[in-house]
Design a protein that fits this description.
Elements lengths: L1 H4 L2 H8 L5 E11 L2 H7 L3 H15 L5 E4 L2 E4 L4 E7 L5 E3 L8 H16 L13 H4 L2 E6 L22 E4 L3 E2 L4 E11 L5 H22 L1
Parallel strand pairs: 4-6, 6-7
Antiparallel strand pairs: 1-9, 2-3, 4-5, 7-9, 8-9
Helix pairs in contact: 4-7
Length: 215
């Protein structure tokens, strides 16, 4: 937490605002991993999600949370992404993060199947202990749209410390990369635009490494 103490005054400033949220949408360009996923039989969404959470774990600012009156850094993150169930209604997944790609994908697919097949609203994080909810990162994928902005719901602006991330339609550049609209929403007391940039660069690096390691 030494690094956080260097920005505690920034945190206290934004924490005093009615809305402390930073919401940034930009065009993310990363290596085109789709053919690699096809060759390895990895579902592209889940492969990308794994690389994203590996990147989130590497940038400490996305792991700061407010618990009671204290700022903490969570040791682990819980992926939670939206799916459409069989009634075309929103549902939530939740599963334990793993550093192992195959284990992560297996858990993610199992969580997706559960959420898709349930008419009941799952994993809305309203019945969990607060300390457990603080481990969440909320994920939304909108693969049909090339959106330019997005506003994520928050329970209370005063405690809006859980990051929300969204991405949209993939678009090939023809140069071995893909582009997509990518949105990051986080507490500005913890995250500046620079940290969003660091996350994007970490994600690019991790995708390259994962492809290189497995080839």
């Amino acid at each position: 937490m030494k690094e956080f103490e260097k920005r505690r005054d920034r945190f206290e400033l934004f924490e005093s605002f009615e809305s402390p949220l930073l919401n940034l949408t930009f065009t993310l360009e990363v290596p085109d991993f789709r053919n690699f996923c096809k060759s390895q039989k990895y579902p592209p969404f889940h492969f990308f999600l794994f690389s994203l959470f590996k990147s989130l774990m590497a940038v400490d600012n996305f792991r700061y949370r407010i618990l009671g009156d204290e700022v903490i850094k969570v040791d682990q993150l819980i992926p939670s992404y939206t799916v459409m169930n069989q009634d075309n209604n929103l549902n939530f997944t939740r599963f334990e993060y793993s550093k192992n790609l195959e284990v992560f994908i297996e858990r993610s697919l199992k969580a997706r199947e559960e959420a898709v097949n349930s008419r009941e609203l799952l994993h809305a994080a309203v019945k969990l202990p607060e300390s457990e909810v603080k481990k969440y990162v909320f994920i939304t994928s909108i693969p049909w749209l090339d959106f330019t902005s997005i506003q994520h719901p928050v329970r209370k602006f005063s405690s809006a410390d859980i990051p929300s991330i969204a991405w949209g339609k993939f678009k090939s550049t023809g140069n071995g990369t893909i582009q997509m609209p990518f949105s990051v929403q986080a507490h500005h007391g913890f995250v500046d635009g620079h940290h969003v940039y660091l996350l994007a660069k970490e994600l690019e690096t991790n995708l390259k490494q994962e492809i290189g390691i497995c080839q």
